[in-house]
Design brief:
Serine Threonine Protein Phosphatase 5, Tetratricopeptide repeat, mainly alpha, globular, single chain, 62% helix, two-stranded parallel sheet
Length: 367
């Protein structure tokens, strides 16, 4: 461990009592470069963070300023401080700054340690939930599974599926159970699997029966998704994600039942797309070719700019000796504009599609 580690103050500044701090009085944050970046941030100039911290060295140079500013801000906590510092910590991670975890942990603890207990101030509760969601979504989007899991563990006893019947009040949000399921699910993806890789395996996604570790994780994720059945806002997407796992576990009949649940639960455009796409996979695994083609076509209709259903249809028709149809879908896949969105490419990044809205909610927090 480097000697510098022993003098990192970020976590300390935010978790010990103010009375215990013995460093010299903090300079006014209005006189600091961090405060300058904060002023730009609250004025809507969000790129100011990227410009102010182009590399890890810039964070090293700002270490003392960060320490002084955090000392001041922890005494007068406000949501806009937390939102700014959260995005600053994201930049620190992306710049591979060694002290990013300490900075991030301190900011998280500052939010958890706010004065009001859960249930006292609905607006403060909503801000905190959005803050935690945004943080976990960031880690999932970067495939930082260990950090995402550690963050959820830090929320144990503070956020739960149901209200507390007795004892310490808790925040209630089933999304965090959904996030835990996604953490496990993502670790079954090709990016995390050991052994030889092939294009066929990447497309098929089937989990080999002799891959006991991935099988165990997949079954665990299925069980975690099943826990979300009683929660309408998440049930449809959880069922669709469960269905893909069941296809990959060579259980296509069970996958179809899960997809029926997903379709009955509604869901946004992305969930409907996933449901149709995964239904095509399940039906194809069962040899029900015509039905599979209809499912893929429905997916293409829900998301016209997506390449994945077009590729699936081209492959399907090629294997079943319909060269004209195969050529048509292959041409559509090849001519899809690069900028067109296909949610499948981001499937293994959690619910990244909501990250922008969550950031916007944090950025609008006042004071």
């Amino acid at each position: 461990m480097r000697i510098a580690t022993h003098v990192r103050l970020f976590g300390l500044l935010l978790v010990v009592s103010i009375a215990a701090l013995t460093v010299r009085p903090a300079a006014s944050p209005q006189d600091s470069p961090i405060a300058t970046a904060y002023d730009a941030y609250t004025a809507g100039q969000y790129a100011a963070l990227l410009q102010a911290f182009p590399d890890a060295q810039a964070f090293d140079q700002a270490r003392r300023d960060l320490q002084r500013t955090l000392q001041t801000w922890v005494r007068a906590w406000r949501p806009s401080y937390a939102a700014f510092l959260l995005e600053l910590s994201f930049v620190a991670f992306d710049r591979n700054w060694d002290d990013a975890p300490e900075l991030f942990g301190g900011i998280r603890d500052m939010v958890i340690g706010r004065e009001e207990d859960p249930g006292v101030d609905a607006e403060a509760d909503a801000f905190e939930i959005t803050f935690h969601r945004t943080a976990v979504t960031y880690f999932l989007s970067r495939l930082r599974m260990a950090e995402a899991d550690a963050y959820l563990n830090a929320l144990a006893g503070r956020v739960d599926l149901e209200p507390a019947a007795t004892g310490t009040p808790r925040l209630v949000d089933p999304w965090f159970a959904f996030a835990r399921a996604m953490i496990i699910d993502i670790q079954t993806s090709p990016a995390f699997r050991d052994g030889p890789r092939s294009t066929a395996a990447e497309w098929d996604l089937a989990i080999p029966p002799d891959d006991s570790n991935t099988t165990r994780l997949a079954e665990q994720a299925v069980a975690e998704y099943e826990r979300l059945r009683p929660y309408p806002r998440l049930a449809a997407e959880a069922a669709a994600r469960r269905a893909l796992l069941l296809v990959r576990l060579h259980r296509p009949e069970d996958a179809l039942l899960a997809l029926d649940e997903s379709d009955a639960g509604g869901g946004d455009e992305t969930v409907r797309y996933f449901s149709a796409l995964f239904r095509g996979r399940a039906l194809e695994a069962l040899g029900r070719t015509d039905e599979a083609a209809h499912a893929y076509e429905r997916a293409a209709g829900v998301m016209p700019g997506a390449q994945t259903p077009a590729v699936a249809l081209a492959s399907l028709f090629q294997r079943f000796d319909d060269p004209a149809a195969a050529h048509g879908w292959a041409e559509r896949a090849a001519t899809t504009p690069a900028a067109a969105g296909d949610p499948w490419w981001w499937y293994w990044r959690g619910d990244l599609r909501h990250a922008g809205a969550r950031l916007d909610a944090l950025r609008s927090a006042r004071p």
